[in-house]
What we know:
mainly alpha
Amino acid sequence: MLAMLHPFIEFGFMRRALVACMALSLSATPLGVFLLLRRMSLVGDALSHAVLPGAAIGYLISGLSLVAMGVGGIIAGLSVALLSGAVSRYTPLKEDASFAGFYLGSLALGVTLVSLRGSSVDLLHVLFGSLLAVDNPSLLLVSSIAAVSLLLLALIYRPLVIDAFDPGFLRAQNRWTALLVHGIFLILVVTNLVAGFQVLGTLMCVGLMMLPAAAARFWGRGLPGMIASAMILALIASLSGLIASFYLSLPAGPAVVLSAAMLFFISILVGPRGGIFRLRPFSVGKEKV
Length: 289
């Protein structure tokens, strides 16, 4: 146990990385659960790529400025979300195809913009993050976004649950409430992806949002149980990923997401609520074993 905690006791950069991952685990994974319930899992992936052009423009203007890249990422992500929704509503194109078109274009545009001024090192920093280089301003931004996200999520929790399970009922009660709740939810998703982008990069940040949420389906009973399970799994993935990165000399961000993926596959196999080996007892003839 002491050997596991040694990196966090000895090194400040490990402590900052752990706190940043813990903040994301507590704020992003509940949003991942709601994306899962609304069958919008791939929308999170699309929006994580959609923030890249805005972050790249902020990078071109101010270099590796936390504020400029964060504001640019939020504007770009919300713009893609609104444009995709408008295209799917006013044209025959379905929402998934609309998001796919916008996110692929956004990814290509963002990589191009970063490459215009930066080196390959800068491009890797934007795409994959630099978890072990998290500084105090980045940590403050991530923690602030996490705190505000949890507060807003608590305020819209009831209508968000209704919208996830019976969106027609909420729209019938009050159309503007449904639109407001959906808008706040998308804003929370984008801002958490921007916070994750500061830590894990645009290609990795959605992993900590969606993988624990998907794994929680095999552990939690009911929505509160799923949300709690997702948070716990994300915290375990953050801690184990950082420990593995320290002792095995692995890149920290991918190690955290890989730990979350391993927990997801373990949940599929042995999760008590629908796991492959827990789904039904193995039987020989008429006798159960």
